[in-house]
Specification:
Two copies of one chain form a homodimer.
Chain A: E1 3-8, H1 16-31, E2 35-40, H2 46-57, H3 63-70, H4 72-87, E3 92-95, E4 102-104, E5 113-116, H5 119-126, E6 130-134, E7 137-140, E8 146-148, H6 153-164, E9 169-174, E10 195-197, H7 198-206, H8 214-222, E11 227-231, E12 239-242, E13 259-263, E14 266-275, H9 280-290, E15 298-300, E16 309-317, H10 321-330, H11 332-335, E17 339-343, E18 346-352, H12 362-372, E19 379-383, E20 386-392, H13 396-406
Parallel strand pairs in A: 1-2, 1-9, 2-6, 3-6, 4-7, 9-11, 10-12
Antiparallel strand pairs in A: 4-5, 7-8, 11-12, 13-18, 14-16, 14-17, 15-16, 18-20, 19-20
């Protein structure tokens, strides 16, 4: 029996009852002979309440102090969890990110982990303790200031600790049963996935699946740490995410298609009337990059020969929309385009699966399904194991259901889709 | 203009409005040319709410984890205060006890400061920042665990930092105007004291005055740090506490009597029928000391020659009463007393003033005032600059008022007491 890292989110420890329930689950793992390291988020709404307080004293809370404030949240939940475990007769010690050796860069509010030195955790484990670690937080290598890892940071803490401690598995406990073939709120017949490759999970996360964040999966893939996403309420087997298909695991089959993801958090910017000559696209995207905006899909329309002008469209998070428009307007004179169009009524549907590489009919079947559902496609983007399209936002749910059914992912259906002959 | 340390208690930073008000006061000190270090407690009821949560998950919260939990409180208030200051256009950085270099022993929930190494505070000040430090907390030298200093610990943090940073003054902001000649809730005519010697303040604190805690004053006296106790609401001059009378301070006169303190938090234990032979008292108080109970006054009654037995009484905090009875019952056979009496309906009245040393009539006038008020005295204890008596608890308020009036401390009175001729 080896070492397991368990991560519990805010909804699992929302109140004293939740904390006691989680404590029992942790003690169970310990009784089964494991060394147990637990990463915990702030209780329920604590973080939102702290943000609210911050906004009352300062309209634009400062980075360093904002991190100092927010990290109070996990301090509360982790200490309470340690107390609840001790109350069950087991030894537990809680550690802040800094005490656990989570070393980050100095970018407040969204720091990146650059090293993990879990000496104190090792010692605590060797002395028979269950170690409880604050998720989401670290300490900067340069200034020794407290940092936070940004949204979903606790998952990253868990995976990083699992890697540093060479854990058998990193269990991510949440309020759903695992990763599904589509968002169950949209697709009633979505199936829980028993196993998914890290590669496919990365694409799902990048395409709008909310269960695991991209950088957490990336970290796990790099250090070859299996993740087990499961419910803290049911205790059922959830979804395993790993680089290789687990040997001897009967429940696992390597699906051609892993799932359908969708994302309605993006907007589309179209730069109209760009002179069709070398360097124009570069100038546009340099202006965007200088404003530190990450973009997703890019499409350049075919140039109209008569005018020598073309349009360039790209998608980006809605939250970055205003910043992008501002950056482009400022660079308008030097770039020399005609006008800007902004559209936040778009949605993205993505089909993900490593099987695409070797099943040439997937793309055709995907477009056929969308066409049959009467969904118009505005942009297309593909990778080795993913196809994404942009549609009207109103069409997204219908499109996801149509694709999910067409690829035989519905839980009641025994029929698999028959792929056509022409490759994509 | 030198360095000032300001300490704000929980009632001063109870909500966002309070934090913004305090921020303005801090910025004012900075504008006046001072380097400013601020020690802050947890907001209003935060600590009580955290204790309540702890009790919900575990009936007896554990020391280490309890400290981890409680220290979340100052983390919140200090980060918010730093944000509020930055919002006023000044630079501020917050520091945990550990970051501020507050090194303690390892006794959780009531640690003692053993060293202060404020390197990061110095750097922050040199860079033009206002430094905000979490009160009440430190880090243990041995285990590097987070510790708390116990009740009133933030005052001690402030004085300790003032000493380590060689501050001009340690300002303790609170919700009263300063130290009074008696508790104003009991004595309507109590006067605010402009200056009081550290020595007298120590005796007042030991005798039940709640404004400053004993160990905070002791620390200030040892390192010769002047304390200024004042209201965070009025901004008026409060009470200065220092070893020497300030030179050239017109408002200050060295009073014969500093004030009247009272304490109804103690109980009296009487060990009845103790054999009157050498070593008996030692055996009793060794049993008490082994149980780590601090006692206050001790009186041994005159032995009745006929029986060879005597009674020994002592006072101690009511909270320690059960423990003391338990310890004595267990040692009954080896000590050989007859029975125990426990009385928690007592009160203590103390008169404090360095002038007692040279004014021999004080004791007589004190007893006369109590006698005139019809108050019966049960125990007496004296020091160089203090007389204390134990009475029935019901008599305490009346006794305090009578003594306060008799010694000319009432604010409306111009008459000073005339001391009698016989010494005490």
């Amino acid at each position: 029996m080896g070492l397991v890292v368990q991560k519990y989110g805010g909804s699992s420890v929302a109140d004293a009852e939740g904390i006691k329930r989680v404590a029992k689950r942790i003690v169970e793992a310990k009784k089964n002979g494991h060394q147990v390291v637990v990463v915990v988020s702030a209780m329920g709404d604590t973080t939102d309440e702290l943000i609210d307080l911050a906004e009352q004293v300062s309209p634009i809370p400062a980075g360093r102090e904002f991190d100092m404030l927010l990290t109070a949240g996990e301090r509360i939940s982790m200490a309470l969890l340690a107390m609840a475990i001790k109350n069950l007769g087991h030894e537990a010690q809680s550690f802040t990110g800094s005490q656990a050796g989570v070393i980050t860069d100095s970018v407040h509010n969204k720091a990146r982990i650059i090293d993990v030195t879990p000496g104190r955790i090792r010692t605590a484990l060797d002395e028979g303790n269950i170690a409880i670690v604050a998720g989401f937080q670290g300490v900067s290598a340069d200034s020794k200031d407290i940092t936070t890892l940004g949204r979903g940071g606790s998952d990253t803490t868990a995976v990083a600790l699992a890697a540093a401690l060479d854990a058998e598995v990193c269990e991510i406990y949440t309020d759903v049963d695992g990763v599904f073939t589509a968002d169950p709120r949209v697709v009633k017949k979505a199936r829980k996935i028993d196993w998914i490759s890290s590669e496919d999970m990365l694409e799902l996360a990048a395409s709008g699946s909310k269960v695991l964040l991209h950088r957490c999966v990336e970290y796990a893939r790099r250090y070859n740490i299996p993740i087990h996403v499961r419910s803290s309420f049911s205790g059922l087997r959830g979804t395993w995410v790993s680089n290789e298909k687990p040997q001897g695991d009967e429940q696992v089959e390597h699906a051609i298609i892993s799932g359908v993801a969708h994302d309605v958090s993006e907007a589309k910017v179209t730069v109209v009337g760009v002179p069709d000559k070398p360097g124009e696209a570069a100038a546009i995207f340099r202006a965007i990059a200088d404003a530190e905006i990450n973009i997703d899909m890019i499409v350049q329309n075919v140039s109209a020969a008569s005018t020598g002008l073309t349009d360039i469209s790209f998608t980006l998070p809605k939250t970055e929309g205003a910043k992008a428009i501002d950056a482009l307007e400022k660079a308008k004179a030097s770039i020399g385009f005609e006008s800007l169009r902004y559209d936040d009524q778009i949605g993205k549907i993505s089909l993900v699966g490593a099987g695409m590489k070797t099943n040439p009919g997937v793309t055709a079947a995907f477009f056929q399904a969308l066409s049959d559902a009467g969904v118009n496609i505005e942009l297309i983007s593909t990778s080795e194991i993913r196809i994404s399209v942009v549609t009207r936002q109103d069409d997204v749910n219908e499109a996801v259901r149509a694709v999910h059914t067409a690829f035989g992912l519905d839980s009641d259906s025994d029929e698999a889709v028959v792929y056509g002959g022409t490759g994509r």
